[in-house]
From TrEMBL:
GO terms for molecular function: pyridoxal phosphate binding. Coiled coil: none annotated. The keyword DNA-binding does not apply. Its cofactor is pyridoxal 5'-phosphate. The modification N6-(pyridoxal phosphate)lysine is found at residue 31. Residues 12-215 form the Alanine racemase N-terminal domain. Pyridoxal 5'-phosphate (PLP)-binding protein, which is involved in PLP homeostasis. PANTHER family: PROLINE SYNTHETASE CO-TRANSCRIBED BACTERIAL HOMOLOG PROTEIN (PTHR10146), PYRIDOXAL PHOSPHATE HOMEOSTASIS PROTEIN (PTHR10146:SF14). This is Pyridoxal phosphate homeostasis protein. The keyword Transferase does not apply.
Amino acid sequence: MSAIAAGLSAILARIRAASPERSVTLVAVSKTHSAEAVAQALAAGQRVFGENRVQEAKAKFPDLRGGYPDLELHLIGPLQTNKVRDAIALFDVIETVDRPKLARALADEMERTGRRPRILIQVNTGREAQKAGVDPDQLDAMVAICRNEYKLPLAGLMCIPPAEDDPAPHFRLLADMARRHGLDVISMGMSGDFETAITEGATHVRVGSAIFGHRV
Ligand SMILES: *Cc1c(COP(=O)(O)O)cnc(C)c1O
């Protein structure tokens, strides 16, 4: 068994142990790792992947998709409006929608191409000045813009808690906000805290280094 296959099966076992009553989707975060590493994860049965840069994903994934039509690719990093065309072409889920201008650009490109990847709104639960994401106080307005004004396929919410905080209250806040808006997808938790995220209601966890090793 490859190291990646072993890492995957260990993480999947931990996910199952943390969520015996429901299924949680593992988004395997392959940023900075090679197409060969992704191919090993695919061979081991993993189908859902996360990348944080459009250009990097564009270089790696189109070739891999050929053999795996059920591969599902998530964008988990910031999206500039000038990359929207590539992002819509490449990704099945865009997790980082965080401003009306981006929502509009996505809606325009969906209209133009007919391709409609699901979107999540990223919420800046820690209200960090440097971090992407909608301020929690602006979430209701952003949900209304995505749903009513631009008719986007809004599926859920995503967050990255401040590194120095206990993540649990951030996860709880995100799950509460998702329930309040009737949103099914709750993307939260990384290598260091995905079990806590599952306890707090994550439907998707984004795990990179615990599967692929340290980033190169
Ligand atoms: C890199 C990254 C992850 C995975 O982080 P690990 O600590 O390697 O598991 C998850 N989410 C986002 C948004 C990331 O950028």
